[in-house]
Structure prediction request, 349 residues.
Amino acid sequence: MSLSRETMMDLMAFADGELEGEDRARVERLVAENSEARSVVDAMRSPAIGEWLEGEMAERAAAADGIAGAVMAKLPARGPARGRSPVAVISIGAALALAAGVALILRSRGESSESHAPVASVELPSVDTQVLPIVAAQRPTQGVEVDEVDSPSRGISVFEIPVPGAAAANANGPSSVVIMIEDEGKK
Amino acid sequence: MRRVLVAVLAAVLLAVLAGVGGIALAASTHGPSLEVSVIHASQSDAGGSIDPRLKDLPQLTRDQPFVRYNVYKLLDRRSFPLDVGKAVTYGIVDGRTLQVTLAGTSVDKNEKRYQMGAQIGEPGKEAFLKSLQVTASANEPFFIGGQSYQGGTLFLELVVRP
Prediction:
């Protein structure tokens, strides 16, 4: 076949009667002068091709109508657009409340675990800043210090003891205290 | 429709419980607490024993003053919220009352320190412990001992839990 793709398209349009004016005249001249173009147009216009094309087109149109019909048939079954029902509103509210509750739980757990996380080991300026226990565990703690003890007329002894736990074996480690107060005559 | 309503009500109930639980959990995890343990120490010729709940005590019994006793029993253990300026009051088994107040907190060498005051008294009698001021780190116990009780001595173990 020596005809170009564009020519074939023109011939098909001509065979279908879709061309007018100068385009139609140009294709008519081509058909008159070119036997190959003429045979293409004749084939396009043959009854066999025409019936096949008509059948295909009718079938596709029916299928499209069927899809559209099915879609339209479904729409009334779901009802027209309207405001949310009270049940739906309650359901949405419950879901939001549930999500908020879960988020609050997770947040509080996050805060709790945060105090155990090795976030940083920088000097913290605020007196209310949380201690970082992991950091604390990597160095000796400062133990317990007695700033003042007062128990009139009773004997008081203060014993320094190693802090129970990891630092207990370290003689230079932190210490805790036991304040012993005499309790003579008590039951 | 009925099943839908039941499902919705269940969801609402679950949501409310989750919210309340979250608030309660958030509140419970806020702030330090004071743990008070009452330990009865005595000397027995029949052999020593240490209450297994006193897991840190065995290593201390080699030192004074714990070495004086060989039987240790945990009588009570309680935990109290510890807020600055708000006294924690605990009734000791011998009739006296322990009062602990968190005076404040500070940070020293990246470590949070708790300044506390403690008193042990008994109505109508002279205070057993008029005043004790200590500075302690979290999870580091200190002890107040000497109260006579049932042939032995009471040790109050105090520890701040962060």
DSSP finds six helices and three strands in chain A. Chain A touches chain B through 69 residues (CB under 8 Å).
